[in-house]
Design a protein that fits this description.
Elements: H1 18-72, H2 78-86, E1 90-94, E2 97-100, H3 101-119, H4 126-156, H5 163-174, H6 183-194, H7 198-218, H8 220-236, H9 240-247, E3 252-255, E4 260-261, H10 269-274, E5 285-286, E6 292-301, E7 305-314, H11 317-327, E8 331-333
Antiparallel strand pairs: 1-2, 1-8, 3-7, 4-7, 5-6, 6-7
Helix pairs in contact: 2-3, 3-4, 4-7, 5-7
Length: about 350
């Protein structure tokens, strides 16, 4: 016996609740939206990937262009110099320590700025100017390598240069020659003649002071010779010529030959001599260039002039070690420059 259903299967839609109808309509709308949603998601994803690829290619091209400008064409313009001051790229390597491109460019640009000032006054042929420029580049790179070697030795010996020492040296340079220049006027001279800012000049002073400290610290022979001179001068009544004759090429003898300005730029000797009495001998002191020890004896002086003789003990250990490093092939240069004399 067949049971009779109360309604036909086709009548199911007619008996749906309002809630079921709303849910059905919602799903219908969502399914239609998905047709547009997924293609847009795909397009957005592709756009992000393309943007990353374009940005990466752009960065790579910029790096290649920068590399070519610095290393191949040796661009020394303002833009590349500023980039080198921000990005610590190397122009060479000394015994494992990078020589900063910014230090090299700072030195060569200041030298060439001074050369440019001279060429406007002197009648310099273009080919001669080019040869001098190449010479300055070679000197600047070698100097940067030496200073980097000094930084390496300074790190090993825990030698440091403080901001106060740099500031003191800056003030001493500002007053060189006895001129009481204001900082503003001194910086103007630096910028006009050498194209240097205060930060750049302070960097130069920092490197120079570090090299001076290192050269003094490692030169045991200079220390030994200086002590010998002190003993001999104390025993012979300050006879500089006798010491020179006894010590030979260990010491250099110097004489002004007459009165000179007591503010003369001579490694600090005239300033020291002007502070001594006539016939008085100084204790040893470090040259203002930081390349050796001086002893001076004042022969005569006035309020503005002085006549003196001197003995000089040069630091040689730093140069010897740097030469050793160079001959051992521990210096790698990333730009091509001719050696001096080539």
């Amino acid at each position: 016996m067949k049971l009779k259903l109360p309604f036909k299967s086709g009548d199911a839609k007619e008996h749906k609740t309002e809630r079921e109808k709303v849910e059905e309509r919602r799903e219908e709308v969502l399914s239609r939206g998905r047709k547009f949603k997924y293609p847009l998601q795909y397009a957005k994803h592709k756009l992000v990937i393309n943007t990353i690829i374009i940005a990466t290619v752009g960065v790579v091209l910029l790096v290649i262009a920068g590399w070519a400008a610095l290393y191949k064409f040796q661009d020394m313009g303002d833009i590349m110099y500023r980039i080198s001051r921000v990005v610590p790229v190397a122009v060479a390597k000394v015994d494992g320590k990078n020589v900063l491109f910014s230090d090299y460019l700072m030195t060569v640009r200041s030298s060439l700025a001074a050369l440019d000032q001279q060429s406007s006054v002197l009648d310099t042929k273009e080919e001669d100017f080019g040869a001098v420029e190449n010479g300055y580049k070679r000197q600047a790179l070698t100097q940067a390598e030496e200073l980097t070697f000094a930084l390496k030795l300074g790190e090993e010996l825990s030698i440091s240069v403080s901001d106060e020492e740099v500031a003191k040296a800056f003030d001493e340079h500002r007053r060189v020659g006895g001129a009481e220049r204001s900082e503003e006027s001194f910086l103007k001279v630096l910028n006009t003649n050498f194209g240097l800012s205060k930060d750049e000049y302070e960097r130069m002073l920092y490197l120079s002071l570090m090299k001076s400290k290192v050269a003094q610290a490692i030169d045991a022979e200079a220390e030994k010779v200086a002590k010998e001179i002190e003993a001999k001068l104390a025993g012979n009544g300050g006879d500089f010529e006798a010491v020179r004759n006894e010590m030979g090429n260990k010491v250099e003898f110097g004489a002004t030959g007459g009165l000179i300005d007591n503010k003369n730029v001579d490694g600090g000797r005239s300033g020291m001599a002007s502070n001594l009495g006539v016939g008085e001998v100084s204790k040893r002191f470090l040259s203002s260039n930081g390349d050796g020890y001086y002893f001076v004896k004042t022969l005569e002086k006035t309020e503005t002039q002085v006549n003196y003789i001197s003995l000089y003990v040069k630091f040689t250990e730093f140069s010897r070690r740097f030469k050793e490093v160079k001959e051992a092939g521990l210096i790698t240069e990333y730009i091509s420059l001719p050696e001096l004399g080539e």
